[in-house]
Design goal:
single chain
Amino acid sequence: MSATHPSENLAPDAPAATVRTGRLLPAVLAPAVAVALVVSAWGAKEPGTWVLETVWVMLGLPLLFLLRKRFPLSGLLCGLLAVHALVLMVGGHYTYAEVPAGDWVRDWLGLERNPYDRLGHLMQGFVPAILVRELLVRTSPLRGSRWLPPLTVCACLAFSAVFEMLEWLAAVTGGEAADSFLATQGDVWDTQWDMFCALIGAVCSLLLLSRLHDRSLARLATHEKP
């Protein structure tokens, strides 16, 4: 199966407005996420849990800034990362087990637990799937290969497993103080549910967004042409 770059499916000259939008999107989203991060720290229920939940945002923002010229991200991925950052910050501010919106959903659907943690782990598969896909499409021979989707899902599951081990380490070292970070809410199968949610998120992301991602990558390739 021959591999074709997504940009080959795009007209040579993209509209100037599209190019400007593609360049402005990261520049707008990054400061917005940084401001939201500061706001989420204000009055956080448990500062230690807030740090553990939002450390990915603290690490990711500087990294994206440093790589903005060498390896700019597609507009779709930038938007997804911003949404994922907001999910993390809300969970860090309230703790996942006590997010008010999750309580509303729990009461509305008659659930036994606040489902916001499940949303967080769905996002843990949904957004990294596009991140992994973009890295593989742009840096490996897997572009256009049938192996791209299954390997992307495998990478997301591997990340989810590593995250669960980090939670286990937090539980071992922090004891009861780590309960808010774990957000198990008394479910002995919480770890398995977390990884299953990440799997569902990754699969849904690829099914729903792969074509849109290809178009976003094509626009990015057009922006990078001299």
